[in-house]
Batch of 2 targets.
Target 1
Amino acid sequence: MNTGMLSVVIPAYNEQENIPHLVKSLEPVMEKLSREYEIVFIDDGSTDNTFNALKDMRKNNSRIKIIKFRKNFGQTAALAAGFTHAKGDVIITMDSDLQNDPEDIPKLIEKMNEDYDVVCGWRAERKDSIFKKLFSKFANGFRRKITGENIHDSGCTLRAYKKEAVADLDLYGEMHRYIPALLSWKGYKIGEVIVQHHARKFGKTKYSWQRIIKGFLDLLVVTFWQRYSARPIHIFGSFGIILTLVGMAIGGYLGFQRLFHKISLGDRPLFTLSILMVVIGIQFFMSGILADIMVKVYHGQNDKKNYLIERIEE
Ligand code: UDP
Ligand code: MG
């Protein structure tokens, strides 16, 4: 069983009324776990009194740390900053809007002790608008299909991570929803527990319909990167070869008719198509080779490894 330090990472963007309530309910839970702990708040460029509220909390509890962003960089960036600065062996993330319940933290940790690297909360009974719930159901189903990772609720930020799992994650955009997918692709074990969810009492949600589009595009990029980042030539090259071969076959057929049946090429649209296919096919192939070289350069940088070792026994 793990007894190392715990870090709670909490992004906050314009959540002034929520901060005192949150700290008040979180502190006793953390004390009861009787482990070393810290609470790392990320003030994501709030324009209200969130930062002052956080500083007030810090006066009474030196375990509270505040990372203040210069401007609003978004929840994913805030989580990434939290991961970098957290000192704990286990990192717990949650929202600051009182929609997650600190009482669920011990459950996450208990589950983690069953030998999981990441434990995700699942808001089985969500307290959000019907539209949000329906859309989220659809989006979660779609994500499970595309990523092959199959936790129920990728929108729930209440999660526990082992430090090493998040140590070298490249997070940007709206990618925090796909952290479990990214981690399961790397071979980390992902568990799930049902957690509570409350309706928002103070402040407003920070997201609108635009996140649907951004989230969808991020999903495509994340998945494409996972499938083909190692060998982009596999996808570009396959397209290229197929197009070129079909183009050449059509061209050969037309050439045959020209030579032996004296059918003129001048008024045959197929001829243009075959040339186009060969040219595009070769382009695809070349793009694939270039992409492959770029990936090699990328992996050559900063010692990026294409494997992860769980442990070495010697
Ligand atoms: N948040 C943030 N930066 C942003 C947007 C949101 O730090 O740009 C925080 C926000 O303060 C909250 C959490 O991320 O603690 C989840 O946001 P929100 O409650 O608005 O999302 P919802 O619950 O509606 O999905
Ligand atoms: Mg919320």
Target 2
Amino acid sequence: MTGKTLKKGSRCTICKSKNEKNKAVVFLPHHRLALCKKHYLEWFERRVAKTIKDFKMFNKNEKILVAVSGGKDSLVLWNVLNNLGYETEGMYIDLGIDEYSEDSKKLSVNFSNKINKKLNIVSIREEVASIPDIDKLTNKPACSACGTVKRYYMNKYAKNLGFQVIATGHNLDDETAVLFGNTLHWDLKYLKKQYPVLKEENGFIRKVKPLCKITEKETALYAFFTDIEYIEYECPFSEGASSIEYKEILSKIEEKHPGTKLQFYSNFVKSIYPILSEYDKKQSEEIKLCKKCGEPSFNEICSFCRLKELVNIGNTNN
Ligand code: AMP
Ligand code: FES
Ligand code: ZN
Ligand code: ZN
């Protein structure tokens, strides 16, 4: 398991400074670090701990609900928070996407048993319909309906379960792909919301992304070294998503210029976001309570209830 430019026989940077002799197994070009397995895992957890602290995401007195999809990022995040001594529970949303949901649920349950932490499972089939059914019954693209459902469930159930903060596994590749898309379109409405902490307000729970400065490759390495089993194939509806294209473009740039992704994201968060959030104060949308379900919404009826209506119309037309 080596990075592209890890030279054969290189010693771990940290071991070298302590006069130990362990060989490096990982090379992180944009951090200029060659590390052995032990120091890689330590580096990774320290980096997540620093992100949590720098952005004041949460503290040890708070209980964190980790949104777990069965993918590597969210399972790694759960493992790291656990190792760092945070009190956690998991939440898995069963989207009813056939084999994909079955497999990812099983892996999430297995992992929660392994670390001996509670996993809360909610099924969208019971409250609305499975994602494949929503796809058939409405003209909404599955991925966008899925995003609406996930956001709604995360917020509603986290509150119902008594949590004030929910942590998701979004990583640096996810965040830069979204930032790239929003920048290409100069979409201020979304850009002004792209921050690793969204504070609780008006019925919205606090949402945090502790892996926002960790790349997908780095998470995969952590999962490999700690034997975390995760779902290795993509959701069948993700094919052709523009975010995948943006990830490929950014990875090509990163390969030639290591550190570009981190710089793109970090400089946005540090220098551009504060300007946008000032702008937000002047343009801010009013948050109401949905007339149907009572959850917070920017419209009279929230997007989840509107989706539910479309599903009902689709059902009666069939
Ligand atoms: P995605 O939207 O698939 O890129 O996932 C981003 C993050 O959302 C994951 O790292 C999880 O923290 C969370 N998430 C995605 N799908 C689910 C799910 N089915 N249940 C709970 N959390 C999820
Ligand atoms: Fe939501 Fe694929 S995970 S549509
Ligand atoms: Zn070492
Ligand atoms: Zn509603």
